[in-house]
Amino acid sequence: MDLDGHTINRMGFGAMRITGDGIWGPPADHDRAIQVLRDAVDLGVTFIDTADSYGPFVSEDLIREALHPYDDVLIATKGGLTRLGPNEWRPVGHPDYLQQCVEMSLRRLDVDQIDLYQLHRIDPSVPAAEQIGRLAELKEAGKIRSIGLSEVSVEDLTAAQETTDIVSVQNLYNLTVRQSQELLDHCDREGIAFIPWFPIAAAELAEGSGALAEVSAETGATAAQVSLAWLLHISEVMVPIPGTSSPEHLEENVRAAELELSDDQVARLTAMAE
Fold first, then answer.
1. What distance in Å separates the CA atoms of residue 231 and residue 195, rounded to the nearest whole number?
2. Angstrom distances, CA of residue 12 to CA of 136, 199, 266
3. Does residue 97 carry a catalytic annotation?
4. Per-residue pLDDT of the chain in tens (274 residues, 90 and over written 9)
5. pTM of structure
6. What is the DSSP letter of 25?
7. Which of 54, 70, 117, 173 is catalytic?
């Protein structure tokens, strides 16, 4: 897939889970986290998604340690969420704060330009145009190559496009959670990358009866692999970013890109949310 001039494999890696419990602090096993990142690239992952709030800062530091100078791997990061403790997140979209986020991510990742910088959340207390506008200024200055958004509506996206080009959106979406379907359809039409977070939340459904369990049995693949393969099959702009701190789960997730599903299997899986 082409992402604003970068060619990437559509099965990416989300680097949130390589931090501590509650996405807070360092991982319990530092060396294992480093190995997972390196294994991901060895398995063919060319798109890694992170954020300054993961840790905070821990995920970006680990990525630099494991992978710098990155070579052909696109590192996407995000800013605009502050951390008050484990599992606590608060949007802050003051333009000066967002500029500080960009400057610090440049330093932690040790790059002159961030490949893809995503506004982690639109702060409702600050005009969205001011938030997007500051990122557009940083893009013009060469500190950001491409801009993306996270957890937005079609209206949010089209409004942001009046200020600058938007190459990606990152919203909650999986086999059973489809409230962003309208946005996905819009991205399909516009050729905008759609990055679903929490992409395999429905894997536990395979333990009982139903389409996911049936297709898992038919293909010999795990429920997680079927869930990820379904995402890749339903849209050419889909870029799943399953995250894990386990080398075993990492390989399982990446191998899902090799799974072929029939039209009937895709249809049965799609009907799960109806």
1. 10
2. 25, 11, 21
3. no
4. 999 899 999 999 999 999 999 999 999 999 999 999 999 999 999 999 999 999 999 999 999 999 999 999 999 999 999 999 999 999 999 999 999 999 999 999 999 999 999 999 999 999 999 999 999 999 999 999 999 999 999 999 999 999 999 999 999 999 999 999 999 999 999 999 999 999 996 656 656 678 999 999 999 999 999 999 999 999 999 999 999 999 999 999 999 999 999 999 999 999 988 7
5. 0.96
6. S
7. 54
